[in-house]
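Q: Could you write out the predicted structure for this multi-component system? I'm mainly interested in how the pieces pack against one another.
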Amino acid sequence: MISAFFIYNQKGEVLISRLYRHDLKRSVADIFRIQVISNTDVRSPIITLGSTSFFHVRHENLYIVAVTKWNANSALVFEFCYRVINIGRAYFGKFDEEAVKNNFVVIYELLDEILDFGYPQNSETDTLKMYITTEVVKSERAVEDSSKITIQATGATSWRRSDIKYRKNEAFIDVIESVNLLISNTGTVLRADVSGQILMRAYLSGTPECKFGLNDKLLLDKDAVTKSNPLRRPNAVEIDDCQFHQCVKLGKFDSDRTISFIPPDGEFELMRYRTTENVNLPFKVHPVVNEIGRTRVEYKINVKANFSPKLYAHNVVLKIPTPLNSAKVEVKVGAGGKAKYAPAENCIIWKIPRFQGQSEFTLSGEAELSAMTHKKAWSRPPIAMDFQVLMFTSSGLLVRFLKVFEKSGYQSVKWVRYMTKAGSYQIRF
Amino acid sequence: MSDAKYFQRGKIQELRAELNSDKRDPKHTKKKTVMKKIVANMTMGNDMSPLFPDIINVMNVPILEIKKMVYLYLINYARSKPDMAMMAIAMFIKDVEDPNPLIRALAIRTMGYIQVEKIIDCLVDPLSHCLRDQDPYVRKTAAICVAKLYMYDRGLVESERFIEKLRDLLNDPNPTVVANAVAALTEISERSEDIQLSLNFSVASKLVTALNECSEWGQTYILEALLYYVPQEPGNAEMLAERITPRLQHANSAVVLTAVKVIVYLMNYMEKEEDIANLCRKLSPPLVTLLSAGPEVQYVALRNILLIIQKRPDVLKNDMKVFFCKYNDPIYVKLAKLEIMFCLAHAGNVDQVLSELKEYAAEVDVDFVRKAVRSIGRLAVKIESGAQRCIAALIELIETKVNYVVQEAIVVIKDIFRKYPNQYESIIGTLCENLDNLDEPEAKAAMVWIIGQYADRIENADVLLDDFLYTFLEEPVEVQLALLTATVKLFIKRPTAGQELVPKVLKWATEEVDNPDLRDRGYVYWRLLSTDPAAAKAVVLSEKPQISTETDNMEPALLDELLLHVASLASIYHKSPSTFLNNYKPRYLMPSPVLRRTRPATFEPSVTSPTAHHEQEQKEAAAANRLSFNGYDMSGFQTGNPYATDVVSRPEMRQSQVTGGVDLLLDL
């Protein structure tokens, strides 16, 4: 398991260093600095030197590093690093060099708590915040309080306190879909899929039992059979796979596909899902890029919004690569936003702040190339696109219900929002 | 709050003065500040150990934050000042009896880290108490503490019967305590020569039930431990796997991959193909989902997928597209995807794969481009119906004249010629146009092999070889060997063309070169040619055995071993853990009446041994309702794994003989 944990800044200075096992000395910190931070060509997130292995994750201007001398479970080590980042964000708003330096004492306290002898322990921010705080606490805390904490930290619902009270009970659901697309240079769709996230902000009193329903095809089909209802809903979505927050009772989902859970307080990611069937692509891009001789490239890029005209996309950005030896690039876009050549990124950046459904825009441009000595042809990286469309889901997924049961029987208000954004939306040309 | 200012080098003298200052400090804020400075200096790697006696004085300050910093200091420096560390004992003794469970746990946790003899001596009693503490938080901390103690003094843990106490914790009502006890037992078992964790069905089943209540990490520990359950009766493996599958939906990839590991393991003990096929279908979607995690986790998942699909080709067989590389994937993800794409390729999707590979061959990263080009060649060897198109793609790539692309292409074309003799030789002309660009030994050797092999069709073969021979003495051995053989081939095929070159090369190889392989081969040829030219012809131009990409597949014994290590470092490197760790206790598929005998030869000797079988049954009976440890329950049961030698050494031996033979032939 994990023998040591370090956080470095970009210069390779150690900001946090904690050893958990005696099979290592602090000087291993220098080895990582030399082998990874000062190395310009790092080709793996894991390196093993002798019997010592270093796992690293980069975040903001930090290196989060775990070291082991064992055949450790690598997924667990990386998940732990991700978790440290998330806890840091929950505690300090941002997890970067400044935040680490300003809060190093709290971070040491946290690390002592969430990693024992290299084994990750309870790392639910809500629980941790009950006894590790950035404010000053006295040592003589009431014993009953502490027992409450310990029961919470080791219990079956370690993510929720039992004494939460709200005057108004509300729950917000955000369905956020990332569309991934890869189109070949002949215009065929190589892959199109959606990875979705369902985020929840729960402001509910007591210990609420929630039930959550989607237009999940498997579930609806099953309902249709059991209720002998011959009408099959046409708009059901086929979910390829999904993953749940640890509060969701997985056994129950496995047996009857109902999503039931006791939510943590506040914001959390309830589930993630994937679909590949019937993906509605929000944008169609038609690129025509011609290399004319060795000195010129002509562009004509057409982009069309494929959703209802009642909706708008925001922050639409297309990055259209230009050859490395472009000397001068001219672009025209007419009414459709603004386009600019960014020499540092070797591409034309085309921004369309507001894009109505069913409308289309065209960019035309030309790049002049300077003479090059080396022979290699332009590799033509794909056009990458970014956007956000509110109240639209590419997969067609809808939230059918969210039911909240609590023993006091209060009423709760629920809100749902949908958004589709670009994941890796790439068009080869 | 901005503590960043403490990150500057502090002088020991000044810090000491501040620690011992008599100034009024009712809220201990000054003490806290100086402790922060000390911790910051510790972090930066400055030696703060001279302050030890002064720190001891601070221990009595009743502020939790200060106490925690003092403990951190002790963990860092106690080992270097064992005598000083003694002074902290009184404090620890007081704290482990504190009414506050958080303080009790903190004390026991910290003591476990301070591996100084005197402190360890004082730890034994409180640890026994803490393992039975009324508070679950203290118990879960104590459980891990036993593992700490074991690392320091194995004998002490055994003589104080801590293992039994840990075992009792498996019945604890609190799931976190159970999970930590399992984690501690697993590690002790993995490090011990005489303690072997082995779960019977009822314990395994109880642990699976506990999964529902555990934290994500606890679930991972329990799933890891399930590999120590060996199904003994038909149906057990199926039942357990069925109950583990819901874990595949967990948001934490460690839980998912470890669940995959257990399920793949249990498949070895299942009877019906149908059940296995069913489970394989369930494995695919969660594995694909892992590819939307962070790039590091993607990498772990990809390396494991490559193992799983070699053993269970049904998994992911229709999911080729998800492994297509994104332009901005990190290089390690791209390389891992490439290997999987090759593995999943078949006649039905070869066109799709090929057009992707062509795309990759135009990218920027040299290593990735090379691997893409190489994959095109391997694809041609693997799938006959796609060979023609793969070769066309390679020719196209050669025409780009990009140096490393050309060289890589030539290396694979050699294999294609081997696989499909007399079909694609028409492209030799194109290859010969690029001779001047070759500067890598592997590419040169491949080209020389081609010239030698087709000396009768390449009209100016003698001229080309002569060009290469010009630098013979400076070439690396692999090129020299290729040149020697090619020249002899030329001579046998076209004696007139080769008669001037052969004596020159033979003389160099035998007289001027130090390498024994080269010299020996030179002598062999020389004698063959001078005593029996017909025999020389039979040897040098002998029929070559078929090559196939099967040789790329992993050795079955290694594959089986690695599948017991899914998600671990070994599964990423595709190397047995014993190759990079010392004293690693190897894992095997343990024999059982229900173990599938896919390779009967491997297991026969051990399974048919009646005594071993009998002992196995005895062991089961003794285990009844709890864990058994060989060193404890079974007096007289030999330690270690009696089957170990049989299981690994046999296939390995056979394999090495075979490859040895093939290598020799390949060189010709």
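A: Regarding packing and overall arrangement: Chain B touches chain A through 117 residues (CB under 8 Å).
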